[in-house]
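Lab notebook, bench 4. Still working through the backlog of constructs that have no structural model yet. Next entry is a single chain of 54 residues. Request: give me the structure tokens for it.
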Amino acid sequence: MAQTPAAERPQPELLYCPKCAQEITDPLICGDCASVICRRCGTPLEVPDELGIG
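Model written out:
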């Protein structure tokens, strides 16, 4: 099976923690429900495009 070159791999979606007020690059993903949460505070993360900021 051929691997996709790094330039063609999709970039991970940027995530934002509303409680920490910063971009999160290393989120936790729940193994049971697949929720994406902040590693620092446990708040569910959001996509910045959906927040209406920036």
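Notes after review: Residues 12-51 form one domain. The chain has one domain: 12-51. Flag for follow-up if needed.
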